[in-house]
Design goal:
There is one protein chain. The two termini are 53 Å apart. Helices cover 47% and strands 15% of the residues. The protein has a 4-stranded parallel sheet with strand order 2-1-3-4, with helices on both faces. Strands 9-13-14 form a 3-stranded mixed sheet. It is built from 16 helices and 14 strands. With 450 residues, it is α/β, with parallel strands linked by helices. The relative contact order is 0.07. The longest helix is centred in the last third of the chain and has 29 residues, at 353-381. Helix 4 (84-96) packs antiparallel against helix 5 and helix 5 (111-118) crosses helix 13.
Length: 450
């Protein structure tokens, strides 16, 4: 086993400091109790001028050069980094070299779980977190509602789910349209929205919300939480036979066999409907027909379509063929980048409004990547996701930051566009994300903000 520690770690300050001798003595005791062979200790007093910890860097080199796998122990996660991102990077780096990382904490040895407690929300403590978790589990055991109740129910005074009289008929209608009338989810969405039947928050329905209702066992009186399943814990809205029929239909309509994954769309996330402001989503249509000679033919068509139209049936058609929209965007890029450069020259002292808007868009992209990383870290720590997904989230965060920096740098646009057909998807996507902040799409025109 190897030990690394930092005397300037946040938790060391909470303990009024520890000497190097104390850290090393703790490691020897830990190895003796857990039957590990102590190999070497790498202790840092403070970072170097470049912000790196010399002894930790020596630890990494030691593992890499030895070609062996080690158990790397730390007093707690703060000895790997001062924030969640730094801990995750150090953890993944050591794990990728074949070593295992463990905190000297009998209650929470996993570094990611330990980091969420020691570096999580200000004021959060392990004891308080554990009490909250146990309290929630006990409520679940008694069939008490946790968090926001599903549509059709509310949390009663005693904590159990109670039917909302204004909402339960809508739940019944959704199941009736799906089972008796054999109406698809998109048609149900259209049916509800066209009649002004809104969600609890007064918004439009979408396919995801309909699917969630059709698959939720809460509507037959079964409460499910924390892996617990409690039938008859509250009053049902839907009979069990109707619910089972709905599940059968869901399975019938699920595609069988190998489902091909369509190629991703270049303008995903940056193309928006000018009418409603929602995103334009990529849609793939497949057609199969029989020719006069009896042979079968098939074709695949790719479009961009307003997400509101596709999921909520509340916006106009606003559909563009993939090649047409992407071609319209590419044609505008040279002039848009040139105009952007001219604006910078004209407004060197602070930039114009469009430049500030572009900066805000990039800041939001980075913030979104940071949020996705935090969510992935929590799910990985809980065991819901694997570490490779955490690694991907960090890579996406790095990419968002890099592209945000590159968006302000000069680029050989002509060369990129002249050889567009030779570029792979990632190169094209990076170029667009770097130099196109937003594409506003109407029926007959697409306008880019660069």
């Amino acid at each position: 086993a190897l030990r690394t520690y930092r005397t300037d770690a946040p938790t060391v300050g909470e303990e009024n400091g520890k000497s190097q001798q104390e850290f090393e003595s703790e490691f020897q005791d830990y190895c003796y109790v857990n039957l590990h062979q102590p190999v070497e200790i790498f202790g840092d007093l403070s970072p170097a001028d470049d912000g790196k910890y010399p002894e930790y860097e020596r630890l990494v080199g030691y593992i890499r050069d030895s070609g062996s796998e080690f158990l790397v122990t730390v007093p707690d996660a703060t000895h790997l980094g001062g924030d969640l991102e730094a801990v995750a990077r150090a953890f993944l780096s050591l794990e990728n070299m074949g070593s295992k990382v463990s905190c000297q904490d009998d209650d929470m040895p996993d570094p990611l779980q330990n980091a969420l407690v020691t570096l999580g929300a200000p004021g959060a403590s392990r004891e308080r977190s554990e009490k909250i978790r146990m309290s929630m589990q006990n409520r679940a055991l008694r069939g008490k509602g946790l968090g926001r109740p599903p549509y059709g129910y509310r949390n009663g005074e005693d904590g159990t789910l109670e039917i909302v009289k204004d909402e339960s008929p809508v739940v019944e209608l959704i199941f009736r349209l799906y089972t008796r009338d054999r109406m698809g989810m998109r048609l149900i969405v259209q049916h509800l929205n066209e009649r002004g039947i809104t969600t609890r928050r007064g918004g439009n329905w979408n396919v995801v919300s309909i699917r969630d209702i059709l698959k939720n066992t809460v509507y037959i009186g079964t409460y499910t939480r924390f892996g617990l399943r409690l039938p008859g814990s509250h009053e049902a809205i839907i009979p069990r036979d109707v619910f089972r029929e709905a599940q059968d239909i869901v399975r019938e309509r699920r595609p069988l066999g190998r489902v091909s994954r369509p190629e991703p769309y270049l303008l995903s996330g940056i193309a928006f409907c000018e009418s409603c402001g929602n995103k334009m989503m990529g849609v793939t249509r497949r057609q199969l027909w029989r020719n006069k000679d009896g042979n079968r033919s098939r074709a695949t068509y790719r479009y961009y379509q307003c997400q509101s139209r596709n999921n909520q049936s509340v916006c106009g058609y606003h559909t563009w063929r993939e090649a047409d929209l992407e071609g319209a965007v590419l044609a505008q890029i040279p002039l848009a980048i040139e105009m952007r450069a001219l604006r910078k020259l004209a407004y060197r002292n602070g930039g114009d409004k469009s430049e500030q808007a572009l900066k805000k868009i990039w800041e939001e992209r980075v913030r979104n990547a940071e949020r996705r990383f935090s969510q992935t870290l929590r799910k990985t720590a809980s065991g819901a996701l694997k570490t490779d997904q955490l690694e991907r989230a960090l890579a996406e965060l790095d990419k968002a930051r890099t592209l945000a920096e590159k968006s302000d740098q000069p680029v050989d646009v002509s060369d990129m566009l002249d050889k567009w057909g030779e570029r792979d998807f990632d190169e094209k996507r990076d170029f667009l994300l770097t130099h196109v902040a937003r594409v506003e799409v109407s029926d007959h025109m697409a306008r880019i903000v660069a």
